[in-house]
Amino acid sequence: MPRILHVVGARPNFMKIAPILSALKEYPDAEPRLVHTGQHYDEALSRIFFQDLGLPKPDDDLGVGSGSHAQQTARIMMAFEPICTDWQPHRVVVVGDVNSTVATALVASKLGIPVAHVEAGLRSFDTSMPEEVNRMVTDRLSDLLFTTEESANENLKAEGVPSDRIHFVGNVMIDTLLAHVEQARELATPRRLGLERGEYVLVTLHRPSNVDDVRSLESIADGLSRLARSVPVIFPVHPRTHQRLKDANLDLSLKAVRLLPPQGYLEFLGLMDGAGVVITDSGGVQEETTALGIPCRTVRENTERPITITHGTNRLIQTHGDAIHRAALEALEERGRNRAPPPRPALWDGQAGTRIAKILMAG
After folding, report:
1. What is the pLDDT of residue 193?
2. Residue of 6, 36, 117, 206 with catalytic role
3. What H or E segment, with its residue span, contains residue 61?
4. How far is it, in rounded angstroms, from Cα 291 to Cα 174?
5. What distance in Å separates the CA atoms of residue 152 and residue 145, rounded to the nearest whole number?
6. Roughly how many angstroms between the first and final C-alpha of the chain, as a whole number?
7. Whole-prediction pTM value?
8. Which of 33, 41, 31 is nearest to 10 (CA)?
C-alpha cells in the first residue's frame, strides 16, 4: 500500500492538492496523508478554504506561522522531518512555489524519499522573486515533474531534466475551478455586494515588489483611487497588504476603493467570474481569469505563466498609477467579448488530478 505524503502551506496550495486527493479515492490501495505547514495561518486564508474545497482535515498541522524566508523555511524543515522519519512515506507530493514547497522537498530529498512536484517547470527568469528560487530548487530535487503548460516542458528540458521525468498533465487549479464555478455563481456574491456583472474591477495584490516598496504602493493606490471615480473597484485585502497600506498611511477606503476582508474560495471565485477586469500580481489568478475568459492585467514585469499572455486574456502592466488606470479602462471595453479557455492541447479540462493520481499509483 503506497504511503503518499501531500504537503500544503498556503492558500494556492489548497486548490492544487484537492483534485489529487479526490482522484486518489479511486485507488483503495493508496494511503494518502495530508500535512498543513501553517504557512498561511489566517482563518480566511486557510481553514475556510478546506471547507469550501471539501478537503479533509490535515493529519498534521505544523503551525509554523510567519517570519522571514529563512526562519519560516527552517521551522518547516524542523517540524516536517519527524513526520517523514516516523511515517516513512514512499513519496512526498509538493505543489506550487511557496516556502512550504521547497522546505519539505529539501527534507524529503535528504532522507532519500522521492519527491513529486505539481506545477513544475514554470519560470519567470527573475531570481529576485523568492518564488522563482523555490521553483528552481524544488524541480532539481524532484523525480516526478508534473507540468501545466508547454513552456514548462521546454524549460525543464532546457535545464537538462530527462524527458521520462516530465509529465504534462494539465492544470489542477483549473480542475478545482471547473468543479466549483457553478456553486460560486449560485452564491451570487457580486449581487449581494450591489455589483453588476461585468461592471466592476476586482483587485488582488500581495507580492513584495508591489506592496513592500512604498513608492510602488503609493503609485498603485493612486491609480486605483482614480479608477474608482468612474467604476466600482473591489479590493479583498491580503493581511500582509493591509499592514503595508496601514504602515504607509494609505487609506484607500477614503478614496472610493471598496476594501473587503480576505474572501473564501467560493466568494472570491464568484467575484472573479463576475468582474469586468481583474488587476492582480498573482500567478494563480492569471490562470483562473484565463480559464474564465475574464480580462486580466498583471502588475508585474514578467510572468511564469506565458500561456495567459499568448492566449490573449492577460497583459503585463507597469507598476504606476497611470498604467493601471489606463489599462483597466481599456480592458473594460473587452467585456462581452470573453474568450474560450485554452484549447484541448493545454489540458485545462478538469482531469489533471486524475492523470496525476494514475502516475503516482504507477510508481
Report:
1. 97
2. 206
3. strand 60-61
4. 7
5. 10
6. 11
7. 0.94
8. 41
